Amino acid sequence: AGVQIETNSGDELLGFVSSETDQQITLRMAGGLVRTLKPAELKSRRELAQSLMPAGLAALLHPLELA
Questions:
Q1: Helix (H) or strand (E) holding 60
Q2: CA of 66: how far to CAs of 26, 43, 53, in Å?
Q3: pTM of the shown model
Q4: Domain total of the chain
């Protein structure tokens, strides 16, 4: 599942945490965008219960595209 992050500057980000340390969090978002944040930049962080993949998308893709 993905995460929803709100930054102190008011940005709302939706994606997957691809790496996380005490110093930084790397978030992968739609369109291949990657954003690295310092933990102090986060106003809030919420783990999402639902997948970020649109419902039914897997049925439209070849199995190799899902790998």
A1: helix 57-60
A2: 22, 33, 11
A3: 0.71
A4: 1
On whether residue 15 sits in a domain, the answer given is yes
Establish if 44 belongs to a structural domain: yes
Catalogue the long-range contacts made by 22-31 (C-beta closer than 8 Å, 24 or more residues apart). Answer: 27/3
Domain that holds residue 26: 3-52
Domain of residue 9, CATH code: 2.30.30
How high is the pLDDT of residue 34? 95
Angle at the Cα of 43 (from 33 to 49), degrees rounded to 5? Answer: 65
Over residues 15-53, the pLDDT tens digits come to 999 999 999 999 999 888 999 999 999 999 999 877 656
